[in-house]
Design a protein that fits this description.
Structural class: alpha+beta
Order of helices and strands: HEEHEEEEHEEHHHHHH
Number of strands: 8
Shape: elongated
Largest sheet: 4 strands, antiparallel
Strand content: 5-15%
Strand order of the largest sheet: 3-4-5-6
Radius of gyration: 46 Å
């Protein structure tokens, strides 16, 4: 989108005008006396005003409460809260005459407008949060629930009764309770033995125990599947890394290859013999035999020539096979000279030699910069450690 300075300036002017108008209105409102404040609909709010009494001027915080409801409205809201309690209190229990699960007690009702404080006649059986303590139930327990409801400064007590019973072993809650109890009894009976004999029956129902399955096999299968799915990407990354290393070796060998080839060609040695001699000298140097570098490409070139391939075709294949721009350039120079003659080959190789050494210096600088960047993070970590060591004693003294 083309930048339009006039539109931007116009937008800024509009913003400034709106800001000035708002400031003027706020300034005007600031000096207008406030005769009344609007009450909030639900919760009380605090508003800060400046009060002036004679020559005294003071800032005051005024708490504004919501409007009071009539007695009929209060009764209606409390009745709604009682109905909401009757509906929600049983929770997962079928009725208040057969309470075996935890009951539902809340801190507020009617969308939070009515606060509630719960208590039970036997807190050892029913806790304040509605949880049932089965171990404290002797028989069917009659419990009185009392909840204090409060709405707009008016309080009201609401009481009702319900029966707490032990759950059936055929329910999930009852099964958990009775199994834990049976295991505890078995543990007490065989406290002196080396093993615990687990019960095989509970209330006439067959009881069986099984060991928990360890997820180790699934984890290994999952890891194997992940590795299988990631294998193509890992192999591709490894191939890229290997090719990167290969290109580095090729680039490192290139200046030496061009220099030696230029020297041999200037001495009147043919291209074929020069390359063969370069390969022989390379194989004699043990420290240079590792890696598939430029000399390895020349060795392949020699084998192709011995197999009957023409020098032009061999050089073309060398440039393609290396995948390196410098070797492609060298192959192009050699192919052109083989086609047109070797009159200016020595001069071109000398020029290429100078270019290769310049490129080598540039690569050396780039590698140095990369190494410096890689060292930056550890150096920052060491700096953080040193700062922590220096600052810790001072901070400890400040705390003292």
């Amino acid at each position: 989108m083309k930048y339009d300075g006039r539109k931007v300036i116009g937008l800024i002017i509009v913003i400034e005008l709106v800001g000035i108008l708002l400031f003027a209105y706020d300034l005007y409102s600031r000096f207008q006396p406030v005769r009344s404040l609007k009450r909030p609909e639900t919760e009380e709010v605090t508003q800060t005003l400046t009060a002036r009494l004679g020559e005294i001027k003071e800032q005051v915080d005024i708490v504004i409460s919501p409007p009071k409801s009539s007695q009929e409205e209060i009764e209606a809201v409390l009745e709604e809260a009682r109905m909401e309690i009757d509906e929600s209190f049983p929770g997962e229990n079928e009725s208040l005459d057969n309470v075996t699960e935890a009951v539902c007690v809340r801190d507020s009702y009617v969308d939070g407008n009515v606060s509630a404080a719960w208590s039970f006649s036997n807190p050892e059986v029913v806790s304040s949060n509605g949880r049932i303590m089965y171990d404290a139930i002797q028989e069917n327990e009659m419990i009185t629930a009392r909840v204090e409801l409060e709405y707009q400064d008016q309080k009201e007590d609401y009481e009702f009764m319900f029966t707490v019973r032990l759950p059936s072993a055929e329910t999930a809650t009852g099964a958990e309770y009775y199994i834990e109890k049976a295991v505890e009894e078995a543990d007490e009976k065989t406290a002196q033995d080396e093993e615990i004999n687990l019960p095989d029956e509970l209330q006439g129902i067959k009881l069986s125990f099984f060991g928990t399955m360890e997820p180790r096999g699934l984890v290994l299968c999952g890891l194997g599947l992940i590795f299988l799915l990631m294998r193509p990407f890992l192999e591709a990354e490894l191939a890229k890394e290997e090719e990167k290393k290969r290109q580095q070796v090729l680039a490192s060998d290139y200046p030496k290859i061009v220099s030696q080839l230029s020297l041999f060609i200037s001495s009147g040695i043919s291209t074929r013999n020069a390359i063969k001699q370069m390969v022989i000298d390379h194989e004699k140097r043990a420290d240079d035999t590792a890696g598939a570098g430029g000399y390895e490409e020349l060795k392949i070139w020699c084998k192709e020539i011995e197999a009957g391939k023409s020098e032009i075709k061999a050089f073309q294949d060398l440039g393609i096979r290396s995948g390196n721009p410098e070797y492609k350039k060298l192959a192009l120079i050699m192919v052109q000279n083989l086609k047109k003659g070797t009159k200016n080959l020595a001069v071109k190789l000398e020029q290429e030699e100078l270019s290769a050494f310049e490129n080598r210096k540039a690569r050396a600088r780039m590698l140095g910069e990369e190494a410096s960047t890689k060292l930056l993070l550890p150096m920052l970590g060491l700096l953080g450690i040193i700062l922590a060591i220096l600052m810790t004693p001072a901070m400890m003294q400040m705390n003292i």
